[in-house]
Amino acid sequence: MKSAVITFPGSNCDRDMAVALRQVSGRDPLRVWHGDADLPDGLDFIALPGGFSYGDYLRSGAMAANSPIMRSVAAAAARGVPVLGVCNGFQVLTEAGLLPGALMRNARQTFICRTVELRVENAESRFTRAYEPGETIRIPVAHHDGNYYADQTVLDRLEGEGRVAFRYLDNANGSQRDIAGILNEAGNVLGMMPHPERAVEEAHGGTDGRRLFEGALRELVG
Q1: Does 87 qualify as catalytic in the annotation?
Q2: Is-catalytic flag, 197?
Q3: Which residues constitute the catalytic centre (predicted)?
Q4: pLDDT digits 0-9 by tens, 111-129
């Protein structure tokens, strides 16, 4: 199993993501810098971590979305390679056009950092198949721009195609339809604001995030 974590200037959860992938897969992921033009050959999984790429000085994720490496990430996603974007990684995926919609400033204009409850809306994707449909899980969030927005046509399509992966039970950031995570049409790209890599061992206060990685990597690690 060969995975990679992409690091942008301002990423601060890349090590957390790497540790989570190592714990589940038994292998250290490759660390890839945003300025690289090409991804390593033969990747089975790509993760875009949380943080504040380029300091969020424009729109969150907008500058990172134009990094050289994102062209290779988009090409890998088109080939079917699983891509996970968490928090800032979710913002990058929307800005790069790999997922629809945008992440706006939280409704109350404050940074939110706490554990939240999510409902698993789609338990059939490779990222969510280790959960039960409708299950409530607890995952930490830490963001200032996590308010998911899309027009009503896009929201209806996401709902109708089963592409809402997770929904907030207590929507503190104002996301439309309580959306916490969405999938692309092919189901191999997931963007989510909550941090599953911060919930992979008991010392974190819970392990509900671990099953996301276990499901996503199931065939890859035997």
Answers
A1: yes
A2: yes
A3: 87 (nucleophile), 195, 197
A4: 899 999 999 999 999 999 9
